[in-house]
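User: Here's a chain of 400 residues. Predict its fold as tokens.
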Amino acid sequence: MWQIFVLLVLLLLAAAAFFQVEAFLSVLYLVALVYLLSRLWARQSMRALVFGRRLPQRAFWGETVEGEVWLENKSRLPIAWLDVHESLPVALASGESPHEVVSLLGHERHTITYRLVCRKRGVYTVGPLTVRLGDLFGLVPARIIGGDVDTIIVYPRVVPLAQLGLPAHAPFVGMKNRVPLLHDPSRFVGVRPYAEGDPPRMIHWSASAHLDDLMVKTFEPTIARETLFVLDVDLARYAHGQRYTATELAITAVASMAVHLVQTAQQAVGLLAHGMDGLEQTRTLYWLPVQSGHAHLVHMLELLARIQPADDVSVLPHVRRAIAQLAWGATIVLVTGDVDAATLEHVATWRRLGFHVTLIAVRPGLSVREARRATDLLGVPFYVVWDEHLFALGGVGSAP
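Assistant: Prediction complete.
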């Protein structure tokens, strides 16, 4: 439009110079005035426009969240037109990305709402938000204003353990031992009658004298009440045709077990994994020390949302350093895709160091029978998660 306007001005100048007619000059002055006013109006509109985005930073799997783009005219002068376009991640968008052309009266506010369907775990960027602004007559070239980019994290799917073929009261739950291996004097909880085999140093002499019977001290166990999840997302560990689905199912399994332990069993959990960071796009070693509490669980779910499988990111070489911070007798849950001799060697080492170990394989293929035989010899519970569990879940998802 403005190119035509420039051509019209040149024609008027040529006509005024050639014909020496004042009417052409009057029209030229009028056109120049309109152009000047349009330019000032567009500049004022740009100064008066304020816009932004409201979007939750985190969402649970399966949740539908609402985003909002807002635009406000801070001036008393109207804004002729705005071309607004919001960029949404394809994996979450419920339809086409929002795109509207609007005009704002003085001090008017306008909102554009949209929905994101969070059915894929991962880290997503929303934006940039772009706004094209121009004058009423189209005489001034449209100005494009770029907005910020926001991030939304979708937590992994959490399901009941039965849907994964995992019993709620399995060894990885870390139940209290009836006879704990270690005693913490600061965790004295009471006394009980003496039983054959109790060490003499555990006898509570004052209680025994008062009750006229031998009584021994009881303590809250200091072991096997914390669980470290070791998540292997090295693509080489999973069957070639099912790498995407299998690794997502492995992450779903870890998230579901962690939620169960913290919310149902009130236990402390930790995480060790190695993979690509969906937020930073770099190879990252994820190490979350064992702790309890809701805030810690949320942090763990956020890390599980960010983890992306990759090649050459085996987590097993990093376990030795991590378990040095665990209490003796704590539980290590290894979730992997393949169970080979090297994996079983690591599991045997952890057992010799005094840890309880549970091995969970996601579609291990032909190695199931051999793995079950080997884990039975090691005294390690072994579970397999795959086809029937995936069918029951209706599929799993993440950011590709």
